Amino acid sequence: MKKWTKTTDGGFTLMEVTAALLLLSVVAAGIVPLLSILYTERVEVQAEREAYRILERVGYELEERDIETVTVSDTSYVVRHQNEAICIYWKGPAGRDKEICLEFPP
């Protein structure tokens, strides 16, 4: 004689749900800092591009030993004519000091 057993496939067990939430939280804990770093580096690259634009615009206008300060979107750029090069200095969004020097023909 066969015994009839009632089986139910009504959903997930508590252990399965707990394991899934744990896995999701571990993945999120790894991704959030990575996204923060990527955002900061993207802003750094934008600030560097702006520095090149400023150098291109201001570079030919500066006289010997001139200094000019340009502020763009909360970042102050200091452009200096030094020796035979024109340099631009600024503090990047990540707090790093940055510098780019280019030589312009006289």
From TrEMBL:
<dbReference type="GO" id="GO:0030420">
    <property type="term" value="P:establishment of competence for transformation"/>
</dbReference>
<feature type="transmembrane region" description="Helical">
    <location>
        <begin position="20"/>
        <end position="39"/>
    </location>
</feature>
<dbReference type="GO" id="GO:0009986">
    <property type="term" value="C:cell surface"/>
</dbReference>
<keyword id="KW-1133">Transmembrane helix</keyword>
<protein>
    <submittedName>
        <fullName>Type II secretion system protein</fullName>
    </submittedName>
</protein>
<keyword id="KW-0472">Membrane</keyword>
<keyword id="KW-0178">Competence</keyword>
<keyword id="KW-0812">Transmembrane</keyword>
<dbReference type="InterPro" id="IPR012902">
    <property type="entry name" value="N_methyl_site"/>
</dbReference>
